[in-house]
Structures are given as structure tokens and as C-alpha cells.
């Protein structure tokens, strides 16, 4: 039995308590200051109010953030369960508390933009934030997996990435079950880039849903146009993976994750509203109070692609869908899919 | 104005009458012996009984098969609109009638297996069937496009492939409209292989739908498992494209077409039934009377992959999903997704 300390009690981290406890490990679920009510409720009744599921009956201990050091005492591994909005908090407050010998696994997926617009993976970002002289093994989870379905023990296939294959194998042993299937990769940039990109493109494909449903919402969903945008997304993602030297085979995580994101939740919702003709402000208003990582990530990715273009590393004209999504989000552009710019001649 | 003779009045060919007539061309729609009623009904009322749509009011002339030579007289291009089951008939009866100067465009997508199990593209197959000394330019349409949505003038993006880029450009000019978007490629093997493969894999991904819905049909659709099978499909398709020297960029047609096929019609239906636990015979019984190209193509593709493995050109273990689909269809295997064989270690 190992002890795994989860810092952050959001939906994905909490869902991972199922495979971990099923494998006989002790999960110490620590809420951040934003998770206070979640921890209170879960400790009292086992119910997770945002995951909307009963957490495992056995094997979980609950902690408020004040007790994080207690929760880290004697732990064998740490799971960082904060969203991208909590990353800096985690790096400042929690990273220094983790012993060098204890490996860290991030639920936070994708890339983050530095001040100069260059994007790096979350593991690299976390490493850059380590206190002087501190060494930690920092790994991350990529691939298509929604927390609800994981909690319901549906089959999910993900990738754990990091620089040390032995540590990745240890993490796989902690979490692999008959329904949670884990591939391992030391190509951190490839896995995380694929995963980051799908956020932007899920929004792009969802535009077709809204276009078909129409302004008054009475239309029927169509698939030819979704498929066209899906194919274009795969093409642009594959191209960007090549430019950043991520292995092209990571497109499987990008395409799989794109697929599940198009069917799930908020990114589809905003894309659909935009496709129906809502302005970006109005569409965001409809989703009020909900933080949309996909918007942040799409903006960052587009920003990064524009900078790479300025340096001559790529042609903006190879990314017409991403540029259009960015123009909708950030420049108030109306949805007007640049269909002809997707057309190619290969001979 | 050009004259385009469509031989075969099935759904896809008939749907293509919309962009062709909209561009001011004359469409001569010739029914095969199987299309007799379609032509009678459409000629009388403009209604296409299987496409379930009114065909364009102007620009179409209707012909029964007896009048095919009349329909070919003075034509500028021919569209072959038969399904894979009609290909041999077309090659024997119609190919000899087409003048050498008139290019042919095939609606029939994908690959066909020769007697030795090797697969070739339909354009190559048609060329092999040309009478001695006859030369024809034979081209094909690939990419995600369902006939209903094309007839409804929803946006669709496809690829025309053939060996002569100038002829492809002429075809593009005939058919390109504000909703029918055409890329061109001389990589015939790449485009057609991608398209053929998606048939097999659409069935594979649909298994997850059935598994989630369950034996009694009361379950809810899940997406993590579909996404996992989708990602695995993209991986296997990409790998096979590399082995046959089709450009890897054709994965965009494969992935796009896979996406639309999962949502459309018969292939999804059979995959869902199998996933719910129906035997192959019982599942096919539920769809009685319907010819399922995906079953034929999945079987052919698996057969071809097994032969390539025997020749040492690939490892069967790299195609676990395709092999499982083949075992379900052809060996009476029960659905039991080989999840762990999808897992990889990359370092």
C-alpha cells in the first residue's frame, strides 16, 4: 500500500480517488481554499458536490488546506489536482513542501504561455518554479478522460508523461485498473501540446454545431461540416506538433481528446453559441461564472503561433481555423468559417 | 456549361446533382437496373425516393439504363455513382462506352482486395479492367460527406484524387460551390486508403456506444471509451498509411470520415448492436436487407493486414483494434476490447 496525497479536490483529482483506492492505496484528499465546502461535505457524507458522485467509502482521508503538511507527512506520491488557474498558487505554496524523493503527478493538462509568448508544458513550468536547489520529479496526465465517466468506472485511456520512465511506471502501478488504461511517454512536449491544442480546436469544431442549429436554435445538428472542421483540426494540430518537435504520434491523444471534448460540456457550449451567431461577450454571458480554460488556451496557442510566424518558423496561412477561432474570441470577429482556405492541392 | 453523365442514381451520385446543376451544368442521371424506380419517380415528380429529397428542378435529365449511350453522347465528364457492389458491372458494361477523352470520377470510395489479398484503390482497379488499348482518366472522391447533408447544401469538405492535377482541377471547377469544398490530391493510394480504413474503425468505435448502452439498451452513451477507441483508430490508420506509402497527411480524411461515419447510419448501428452483446449473425439480422460495405471493407482490410504481417511488413500486434473487429465479424468472437494492448511505453 502507498499513500498518495491529492492537493486540490476538484472533479478530476477526486475522480482519480476511485482507481487509487481500488488498488488499495490510501488517498489523502486535500482541498484548496476554494474547495472548503467540497471537503466539508465529502467528509460528512462521502458526497462530492461538483463531481456529483459518492466518493469511495474506504481509503480516503479528507483534509482542509491548513492541514496540508500533515497530509504530506510520510506520503509516497503527490497528485496536483488544481486547474490551470491554481497553478501559480500550487507552485508557490505547495511545491516547497514536497520532499525531493516524492514524485508529483499533475492533473493540469497542456501548455502555459510565458511572458515572451513562448509556450512550455506544465511540468516544465513547475520545474522552473522550484526553489533553488530543489529537485522534484514532475509528471503529468494527458489524453481523453472526463471526470464523471472516470468516477463511473467507464473505460478511459490516458497517457502519463514525464522524463523518467521508471517513475512513470510507478505511477502507472498506482493508478492502472481494469477501466483506467495508462500509456507512458517521455515525450512530454508532444503529449502536452496535443492535449493543449485540442481545447482550441474543440471550440472550432463546435462552431459547426451552432451553425447547423442556427440563430433561433431550431435547426438540426449536421455532421459533414463537423467532420470537415474535425479533419482540419487534426491537420493543424499535426502540423504544429511537427513544428515544436513533439512526436507526430501524439496526434492520437489530440484527436481522442478533441473527440471527447466536442461532446462534453462547456467548450462545446460556447462554440455552439458562437456558431449560432452570439457575440463572444454574449456567449460568455450565457455561461456566466464558469471559467473556461479552453478560451485561455486557445488564446495562448494562437498567440504562440503568431509569434512563431513572426520568427519565420511557420506560415499563419497553415492555421486558418485556429486564427479564425482567435479572431472570434479576441477581436470580436463574426463566425465565418474560412472554408476555401482549408482546401489544398497536393501533387 | 458542361454535360456530366452520372451512371448510377444512388444517394451520393444524386446528391452531387445539386452542386453540378447549381454551377450551370447539365446532369444526365442514368439509373442502373437497380435504380429503375428511382428514375421513374424522379422523372415524374423530381423526388428521389431513397435520398428522400426533391432533386434540382432544372438542369437534370433522367435516363434508364437502356439509354446510357444516349446519355453519354457528347458528354464532357462521367460520374460513376455505383456502390462497391456495382463496380464490376460498371467496369464490364459502362467503361467500354466512355470515350478516351472523357474523364471519369468515382463516387465509390476506398480499396478493393484482389484475389491474392492485396488491396488496390478503386481507380487502379478500374484501370486494370479497361479494355486493351483503352485509356481513361479515372479519378475518385474521398473524404467525409454524407449524401443527405450534401443535398441539404450543408458544408462538406472532400478530396478529389487522381494522377493528373489538371483533370482534377477541371472536376473541381464542375463541382465546387459555396458549400461543397474540394481539395485535390495526386496521392490516390493515401486518400483512398484513409477512406477505406475508416469503415473498419467506425465499427470499432461504435462498439463503445453499445457497451455503454448495455445488453438491455437502457444505459447512457459514454465518451471516454469512444475517445479511447477513436484515438486507437487514428493510431492504427496512421500506421497503416505509413506502411503502404500513402502520405501520412491523409489521416485528416481518415479521421474526418471516421468522425462522420460514427454518427451516421448503418455502421454505427451494427457496431452498437455488437457492443451490446448481439452475436454478429443476430446483429446483421436486425439490419436485414441492408448491404453493409463497412463489413466487407473491414474484412478485406484485416485480410490484407494479415497478409502483410505474413510477409514481415508489419506486426499484427500493432493493429489490435482491427484484429478484434475482424474476429467479431468473421470468427464469431464476443466483444472484449483489448484495452491493455492499446497501451504503449514511449521512451
UniProtKB/TrEMBL annotation, chains A, B:
Keywords: Lipid biosynthesis, Lipid metabolism, NAD, NADP, Oxidoreductase, Phospholipid biosynthesis, Phospholipid metabolism. SUPFAM superfamilies: 6-phosphogluconate dehydrogenase C-terminal domain-like (SSF48179), NAD(P)-binding Rossmann-fold domains (SSF51735). Gene3D superfamilies: N-(1-d-carboxylethyl)-l-norvaline Dehydrogenase, domain 2 (1.10.1040.10), NAD(P)-binding Rossmann-like Domain (3.40.50.720). It catalyses: sn-glycerol 3-phosphate + NADP(+) = dihydroxyacetone phosphate + NADPH + H(+). Belongs to the NAD-dependent glycerol-3-phosphate dehydrogenase family. It comes from the Bacteria. Residues 4-160 form the Glycerol-3-phosphate dehydrogenase NAD-dependent N-terminal domain. It is an enzyme of class 1 (oxidoreductase). This is Glycerol-3-phosphate dehydrogenase. Its EC number is 1.1.1.94. PANTHER family: GLYCEROL-3-PHOSPHATE DEHYDROGENASE (PTHR11728), GLYCEROL-3-PHOSPHATE DEHYDROGENASE [NAD(+)] 2, CHLOROPLASTIC (PTHR11728:SF1). It holds the Pfam family NAD_Gly3P_dh_N. Residues 187-335 form the Glycerol-3-phosphate dehydrogenase NAD-dependent C-terminal domain.
Amino acid at each position: 500500500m502507498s499513500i498518495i496525497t491529492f492537493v486540490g479536490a476538484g472533479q478530476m483529482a477526486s475522480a482519480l480517488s476511485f482507481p487509487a483506492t481500488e488498488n488499495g492505496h490510501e488517498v489523502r484528499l486535500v482541498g484548496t481554499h476554494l474547495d472548503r465546502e467540497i471537503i466539508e461535505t465529502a467528509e460528512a457524507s462521502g458526497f462530492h458536490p461538483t463531481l456529483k458522485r459518492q466518493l469511495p467509502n474506504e481509503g480516503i482521508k479528507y483534509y482542509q488546506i491548513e492541514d496540508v503538511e500533515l497530509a504530506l507527512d510520510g506520503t509516497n506520491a503527490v497528485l496536483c489536482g488544481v486547474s490551470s488557474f491554481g497553478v501559480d498558487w500550487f507552485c508557490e505554496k505547495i511545491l516547497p513542501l514536497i520532499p525531493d524523493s516524492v514524485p508529483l503527478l499533475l492533473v493540469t493538462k497542456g501548455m502555459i504561455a510565458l511572458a515572451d509568448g513562448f509556450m512550455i508544458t506544465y511540468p516544465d513550468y513547475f520545474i522552473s518554479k522550484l526553489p533553488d536547489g530543489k529537485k522534484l520529479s514532475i509528471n503529468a496526465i494527458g489524453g481523453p478522460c472526463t471526470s464523471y465517466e472516470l468516477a463511473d468506472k467507464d473505460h478511459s485511456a490516458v497517457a502519463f508523461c514525464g522524463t523518467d520512465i521508471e517513475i512513470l511506471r510507478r505511477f502507472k502501478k498506482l493508478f492502472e485498473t481494469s477501466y483506467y488504461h495508462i500509456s507512458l511517454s517521455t515525450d512530454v512536449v508532444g503529449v502536452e501540446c496535443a492535449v493543449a491544442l485540442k481545447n482550441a480546436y474543440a471550440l472550432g469544431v463546435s462552431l459547426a454545431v451552432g451553425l447547423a442549429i442556427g440563430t433561433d436554435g431550431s435547426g438540426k445538428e449536421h455532421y459533414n461540416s463537423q467532420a470537415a472542421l474535425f479533419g482540419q483540426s487534426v491537420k493543424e494540430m499535426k502540423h504544429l506538433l511537427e513544428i515544436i518537435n513533439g512526436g507526430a504520434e501524439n496526434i492520437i491523444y489530440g484527436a481522442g481528446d478533441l473527440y471527447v471534448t466536442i461532446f462534453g460540456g462547456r467548450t462545446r457550449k460556447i462554440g455552439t453559441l458562437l456558431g449560432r451567431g452570439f457575440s463572444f461577450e454574449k456567449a460568455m454571458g450565457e455561461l456566466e461564472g464558469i471559467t473556461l480554460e479552453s478560451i485561455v488556451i486557445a488564446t495562448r496557442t494562437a498567440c504562440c503561433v503568431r509569434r512563431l510566424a513572426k520568427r519565420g518558423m511557420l506560415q499563419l496561412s497553415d492555421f486558418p481555423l485556429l486564427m479564425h477561432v482567435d479572431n472570434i474570441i479576441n477581436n470580436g470577429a463574426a463566425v465565418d468559417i474560412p472554408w476555401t482556405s482549408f482546401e489544398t492541392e497536393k501533387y
